Amino acid sequence: MTTEPPLLLALDLAGTFAFALNGALTAVRAVRLDIIGVLTLGMITALGGGVIRDVLIGAVPPATFRDWRYLALALGGGLVAFALSRWLGRLETPIIVFDAIGLSTFAVIGASKALGFGLGIGPAVMLGAVTAVGGGTIRDTLLGRVPTVLRSELYAIPALIGAGLTVAALRFEVYGLAAALGAAAACFVVRMLGVRFNLNAPYPPGTTGT
Amino acid sequence: MTTEPPLLLALDLAGTFAFALNGALTAVRAVRLDIIGVLTLGMITALGGGVIRDVLIGAVPPATFRDWRYLALALGGGLVAFALSRWLGRLETPIIVFDAIGLSTFAVIGASKALGFGLGIGPAVMLGAVTAVGGGTIRDTLLGRVPTVLRSELYAIPALIGAGLTVAALRFEVYGLAAALGAAAACFVVRMLGVRFNLNAPYPPGTTGT
Amino acid sequence: MTTEPPLLLALDLAGTFAFALNGALTAVRAVRLDIIGVLTLGMITALGGGVIRDVLIGAVPPATFRDWRYLALALGGGLVAFALSRWLGRLETPIIVFDAIGLSTFAVIGASKALGFGLGIGPAVMLGAVTAVGGGTIRDTLLGRVPTVLRSELYAIPALIGAGLTVAALRFEVYGLAAALGAAAACFVVRMLGVRFNLNAPYPPGTTGT
To answer: How far off is chain B from C200, nearest CA to CA, in Å?
Structure first.
């Protein structure tokens, strides 16, 4: 993380906080969980993707365990969501928006870090997407739901777009704060358009999407 | 593991055996599984937490794969549970007690090992708890149940207490067999009190615990 | 992978392709998933076992992320299955056969690689089996099903046989293409016999297998 400009670190931390809010709110809505369950699910959602990424590129212990800010933000996000769950928990919009923020920032940071650890273009894009969807996938699996990444509404595609733009910017040596924010914004916009218009990727021939 | 006194190694091995019994008995009770399913679930419960810990701190191959005693005890515990399932399987108490033993010893060993690999205080406590609850969480997930750690009855809290006491003892340089056993006992007692009196951590405001 | 003869690499790649076909077809049959969900599940099934193996032996980034052929075959297998799902998806046999092929080749390659990384005989056999069943286990877990490896029909046993024969051949220094193919064939035959005659491993005393 030390090679990232400070504002990209801020992006990563913002994504961590957003995912923690999302995970904790999802926990409150989905099943009745006590505070430990809510905080645990918030932390898993926030930290899961980055931990998977770091384990796969061999950057262990994961950044999450070496930089107290990640743990603190993941815990803080869960606590905020727990305290405000009566208000936030009824609204589906904050859950989706927080998730899209985490998805966008993690796709960019994940792809950038993967490339920095020597992965090729294809694997770096894929690892960016894995970073973005990893935490939410663990969250859904623990709650006994088929993960969002499999159920569509354009979830993996925006992550791949964000990661792809990041890798392209790095390869053409135009990567910087503007490029990172642009890649994250592209991911965010595509994701929110998918949610707003209920867009889905194509279904297998002979089946329907309803 | 070589820096641990012999009796702490014994603690770790005892936890492995207890978790294997627990996992295998859970398998027998939860779904009809054949012997391979029962043994597999016993081994996953027994070895999962330690494997996650070792992967996260970079101690690969995990101790589990380098020390035959872990594999043997995990397998042996599963075989014992399989053979005695007709008697043990009907009783909920042994499952809970074996689980609490594994939880306690793994929280202590996990926190101690994490600190030894250079993690900070907060991450070491968290990793101790992850070591303790990891195997059972995988067990529940594979069986399609929301993991105990999320469903409460004070499951994560005793693990955090055991790990926290361990880290405190190490920091104040009073760690030894007595401190390790004390930390494990504290975890065990809190866990069993939680089960006995059906204690739960606080629920989100506006929801009820029933 | 560089120490493997070319035809063993081919075996590994064939297993990857077969597992991708299997995972994608399972996705089409099990739940209505869009193309991203189908491809994701195909890739997870194809690459999951090898990634787990490489993470556990410390060979990170996993071969999957360093050799573009694995990613390409996993993606290609998923695309083929998606395109042909109308025909293949109705048939249960191709799903089972592709799965058995992946199971067989991955058990052999996994055990061979684990031994090459210095694991002992027991752990190498176990890691071979983990490589073989890992991807399918993640596939089933994400789909909310109790994994095949727990539900029997002789799934783990053939993998252990294939891995065991591989380790034996390596220890007696008769390992080569013939031995690898023989071990894989043994695994495949046992698995298919199990499916054909609906064989199961023993059930716990006092319960029945129906």
So the answer is: 7
Chain pair A-C, CB pairs under 8 angstroms = 96
Which positions ≥6 away from A26 have C-beta within 8 Å?
A: A41, A45, A95, A139, A143
Cα dist from B175 to A10, B15, B159, whole Å: 38, 19, 18
| A200 pLDDT higher than 80 | no
| Predicted-complex ipTM score | 0.83
B21, B25, B36: which to substitute to probe chain C, counting the most C Cβ within 10 Å?
B36
Q: How far is B77 from chain A (nearest CA, A)?
A: 26
C4 close to C112: Cβ distance less than 8 angstroms: yes
DSSP string, C168-207: HHHHTT--SHHHHHHHHHHHHHHHHHHHHTT--PPPPTT-
**Which amino acid belongs to residue A205?**
P
Test mutation, A31, A36, A86, chain B, max B CBs within 10 A: A36
Q: What is the pLDDT of residues B67-105, one digit of tens each?
A: 889 999 999 999 999 888 777 656 678 788 888 999 999
| DSSP 8-class letter at B206 | T
Q: Do B123 and A32 touch (CB under 8 A)?
A: no
- Sign of the dihedral through C-alpha A113, A118, A122, A126: negative
C94-103: average pLDDT = 88
DSSP C154: S
Q: Is the pLDDT of residue C208 over 60?
A: no
Using a CB-CB distance cutoff of 8 angstroms, which residues of chain B are in contact with residue A65? 56, 119-120, 123, 126-127
- All structural domains of chain C with their residue ranges: 6-196
What is the tens place of the pLDDT at every residue in B105-146? Answer: 999 999 999 998 989 999 999 999 999 999 999 999 998 888
Enter the pTM of the model: 0.88
Which residue of C57, C141, C150 is in closest CB contact with B33? C150
Cα C202 versus chain centre, distance: 23
Q: A-chain residues within 8 Å CB-CB of C35?
A: 201-204
Q: What is the pLDDT of residues C4-62, one digit of tens each?
A: 567 678 888 989 999 999 999 888 887 777 888 889 999 999 999 999 999 999 998 89
Contacting C with CB below 8 Å, chain A residues are 55-58, 117-120, 122-123, 126-127, 137, 141, 144-147, 149-152, 154-157, 200-209
The CA distances from residue C32 to A208, C24, C140, in Å, are 8, 11, 15
Residue for token pair 């091995």: B13
Query: Both tokens of residue C140?
Result: 């089933």
pLDDT at A26 over 90: no
CB contact under 8 A, B150 and A51: no
Contact across the interface for B142 and C144, Cβ inside 8 Å: no
